[in-house]
Amino acid sequence: MPHSPALRHPLKSLRRATAVLALFATVTTAAQSATPLVLPGSPAAQAAPGPTEKSGTARTVARLVPAMERYVANLMRREEIPGMAVVIADRDRVLYARGFGVREAGKSDPVTARTVFQIGSVTKGFLATTAAIAVDSGKLAWDTPLVQRYPGFALKDPWLTQQVSAADVLSHSVGLQSYVHDDMIFLGYPLADRLRAAAQAPLTAPFRQRPQYVNLLHPVVGAVAAQAIGEADWDALVARRIFGPLNMSDSSTTREALLAAANHASPHQHLDGKLQVVASVGSYWSSLGVGPAGSINSSARDMGQWLRLQLGRGAIDGQRIVSQANMDETWRPRTMVSPTAGGALGWGVMFAPQGRRITHEGGTASYGANAMILPEAGIGIAVLSNHQQEGLPFALSQWVADRIAGLPAKDYRAGFRRSDTAAAPAAAEAVNSAPLEGRYLSGTLGPITITRQQGQLVMRLEIPGARLRLVPTGALGFSAEVMAEGRFRELVDEGFSPIYQLQFEPGPEGGGYRATAVNPQGIQHTFVKAPG
Predict the structure, then answer these.
(1) I want to staple 252 with a disulfide (CB 3.0 to 4.6 A). Which of 119, 257, 293, 369 is the partner?
(2) CB atoms within 10 A of CB 333
(3) pLDDT confidence of 352, banded at 50, 70, 90?
(4) Are 321 and 269 in contact (CB under 8 A)?
C-alpha cells in the first residue's frame, strides 16, 4: 500500500548485510517455467488439454497475460530476481498460474505453479480468517478482550490491557510502537518472555486511532482462536480449517515442511551488490517464532485457492468455510491512514474510483510476496518471489490491477535503485573493558552477562543463550554482532547481524554501568549492572 508503511511493510528484517555468503551465478533467463494452468491468450494455451470456459473475468485476464509476462521478464532481468510465481483467480476458478525463472540461482530447476515459497506477513490474512471461524463458533467475539482468554497478556496501561481484542491486534491499532521487540522473536525468546517485554513497551499512538505495525501479539490471537474451537494450536487450526478444505496441499507453517518440499524455492538476497543464495532459512519464521504473524509457506497454485475463498466471501465450490458476515468484517477498515487508505483485519484497504484493493505484502529475510483482492472486479492476484522483499510483488499486483481496471500500464519500479550495502562500522580504539564486565539485568531482555573471551567482549543473553560479539564503535559504544554458533548461525546467514548498537554509561554518582541497546528499528532495551 503506497505511502502507508505501517500497513504494507512485511515482517521487517533486522538485516545488516555484513555476512559474506557464497556467490552464485546471476539469473540470465527470467521466464523459464512449467505452466500447468493456462488461459486462452497465454503463449502456452495451445498445449493445455481441453477447452477453457471464457467467463468475463477469464477474458479480461487473458487479454493482459502477454503484456504481463513481458513485464515480469523485464522486471526480473532488471532487478536480478531468480524466481517468481504469479496466480490470478476469480471466485470460481484459478484463471492463471505460472512460474518464472529458477528455484535457485545458478541451477536450472524452474519455478512452477507448485513451487513453495515463504509468504511472510501475507499470513496475517489467514490469521484473520481463522479468527473469523472462531467468531462463527460463538465462543469468541471480535471485541472479546484477549486478557479474558489469555491471562498472560498485559500492556503498560492497565486499562488498555482490559480492552485490547483480536480485532485491535489484527488491525495494528493497539498503540504499541511499530515493530516493537521483533528482535526478541528472532533471537528466540519464548512467547512468555516476549509478552513480559510487551507489558513494558512504549505506547506511542492513541488506541484504535492510528495503525502501527506490530508482529508481537499475533501469536496470542492465534492461540485464542485455536482454543476457542478446540484446536491444539494455530498451526493445527489453519491446517484443518483452511489448508484441508481448500486442498492447499503445498502449504505449511514450519521451516521443516518448507525444506522438505521437493519443489521449494531457495532464499536469495543481494549482498555487497551481488545476488547470492542465503545459506539457511531461520527457524524463527515458524510457530515458535513469528507464528501466525508470518509463518506460512505456499505455492501459486495454493494461493489461487486462497484468493477464491476470499472472493467467495468464505465459500468455495459450494462449501461454506466462514460466514460471509465475519469475512466481511476482515475487510472493514478499523483505522484510516489517509482519506483513501485504511487498516482492516489482516489486510490493508485502498479505495479508488475503480474499486477497492484489499492487499497485504509479505517478506521474510529472503522471500517476498503480495496478495491483492479486487472485490468489484471479482479478481484476486498473488505474487511470490524467492528474493528478499523490496516491493516488487506489490508493484506487479498494482500493475495487474491497473490493467484490469482499464488504466494505462504503469511501471511502478521505474525508479527502483537497490541501496548499497551499508559498510560495517570501523572499529574504534580499544577501551578499558574491565568496568563493563559482569552481570546485568534488563526488564525486557532478562539477565545478561558480559565477559572478555579471547581478547574480545562477549555479551550473552541468558534466556535464549545467544552470544553477541561487542565490536567497539566509539567512546563506550559497541556494535553487537550475533556469533554464528548453534541455531544462532541462522541469524547470521539471513543477515540479522549486528542486531544492536550499544551505548554504555556510568550510573549516577559513579555507580554501576548501565547500557542502552537499540535495534535497527529504533526499539530500545536498557540494562543495568547488578550490584557486586
Answers:
(1) 257
(2) 18
(3) very high
(4) no
What CA–CA distance (Å, rounded) separates 453 from 459? Answer: 10
d(C-alpha 513, C-alpha 520), whole Å: 23
How far apart (Å, rounded) are the C-alpha atoms in residues 254 and 289? 10
pLDDT digits (tens, 9 = 90+) for 427-467: 555 667 788 999 999 999 999 999 999 989 999 999 999 99
Residue 9 C-alpha cell reads as 511493510
3-state DSSP assignment of residue 225 = helix
**Residue pair 374/355 in contact by the 8 Å Cβ criterion:** yes
- Cα distance between residue 371 and residue 368, in whole Å: 11
Beta-strand ranges (E) seen in 366-465 are: 368-374, 379-385, 438-442, 446-453, 456-461
Task: Give the lowest-confidence range in 169-183, 277-291, 422-436.
Answer: 422-436
CB 179 within 8 Å of CB 521: yes
166-180, 203-217, 413-427, 456-470: which range is least confident on average?
413-427
d(CA 312, CA 249): 20
What is the chain's Cα-based Rg?
24
DSSP code for 324 = H
The string of pLDDT tens digits covering residues 192-223 is 999 999 999 999 999 999 999 999 999 999 99
> Do the beta carbons of residue 234 and residue 222 sit within 8 Å?
yes
Q: Are 79 and 415 in contact (CB under 8 A)?
A: no
Predicted confidence at residue 389, as pLDDT, reads 96
Nearest to 117 by CA among 248, 9, 267: 267
Residue in this structure with the C-alpha cell 477453457, named with its chain if needed: 52
Residues near 432 by Cβ (< 8 Å), separated by ≥ 6?
none
User: How far is C-alpha 449 from the chain's CA centre?
Assistant: 32
pLDDT at 426: 55
> Which residue from 526, 508, 507, 506 is spatially nearest to 516, judged by alpha carbons?
526
Q: What is the dihedral of CA 196, 227, 144, 443, to 10 degrees?
A: 0
SS (H, E, C) 10-33: CCCCCCEECCCCCECCCCCCCCCE
Phi, psi for residue 229 in degrees, rounded to 5: -115, 20
Beta-carbon contacts of residue 55 (< 8 Å; ≥ 6 apart): 90, 92
Query: What angle in degrees, to the nearest 10, is found between the helix axes of 324-331 and 123-136?
Result: 140
468 membership: H or E segment, kind and range: strand 466-474
Distance CA 178, CA 168 (A): 14
Region 104-129: mean pLDDT is 98
d(CA 226, CA 240): 11
pLDDT at 10 over 80: no
Do the beta carbons of residue 277 and residue 26 sit within 8 Å?
no
pLDDT at 429: 58
Left if phi > 0, otherwise alpha if psi is -120 to 50, otherwise beta: which for 172? left
Largest Cα–Cα separation, the chain: 83
